[in-house]
Amino acid sequence: MPDHPSSAEAITRASQSNLAFAFISLGKERRRDITIFYAYCRLIDDIADSTEMPSAEKARRLKIWRDALQGPVAPEPSLAAEVRGLTARYAITPAMLEEIMDGVEMDLTIARYETFADLRLYCYRVASAVGLVSIEIFGYQNPVCREYAIELGLALQVTNILRDVAKDFANGRVYLPAEDMARFDYRDEDLAAHRDDERFVRLMQFEAERAQAYFRKADALLPREDRRSMIGARIMGSIYHALLHKMERDRFRVFQRDYRIGKPAKLWLAFRQLLPPR
Fold this sequence. Notes:
By secondary structure, the protein is an all-alpha fold. It has two domains: 1-90, no CATH class; 110-278, Orthogonal Bundle (Farnesyl Diphosphate Synthase), CATH 1.10.600. The protein is 69% helix and 0% strand. The radius of gyration is 19 Å and the shape is globular.
């Protein structure tokens, strides 16, 4: 069932992701394995996000992937054998990989969230769970790294949500919690009209401060002895943190701009993470 190119490297290159950018810090074997894992994440996310497949077909393909995580199936999804290989080489279980699938499957049935507590579960599954698998591939000594991965994942996903407000609304999804929108008297019709008035700016700043708190907590949790092994995660964190600052400085003009961090800036941020702590 090859839905996408079979090469994990091709999938990663095509994504142009901040996550993929962080792989440059890894040795050959770990870079190969994190690339396989990232390609898995992209494949299942692309199934859930497809605008061409009906929901029933999306559910069918994700079910095949669930079965493939447990053992060979026919027809076999592309990269399934390589993904199963990760569970043999690291302390990664099929359940950890399924948790990520649980997250992307939420997009098949949930178009909006009433509270941040509801949204947090989604963020945990699609981002923190990715971090928990990633750190097993990166390698670490201190189990506190797992808490670091959880908090960093929440920070990254909330930042993603803020960046993609306009795109997500166009696709029929609102990730801004309804209770937060009500707090600032901002409505769906305002989103539809792309109103970025003071209500919108205050709403977005409220969410940005939540992301900032997760970034601070992650930084505080990172064990000193694992700073080197977590270099890939630190690069990701620095890029997304810069993205969040960029949106804040620009007063969240997400209806007019597609916020990104350019390659030279990413290289500088990566270089800074390689420097010894002051």
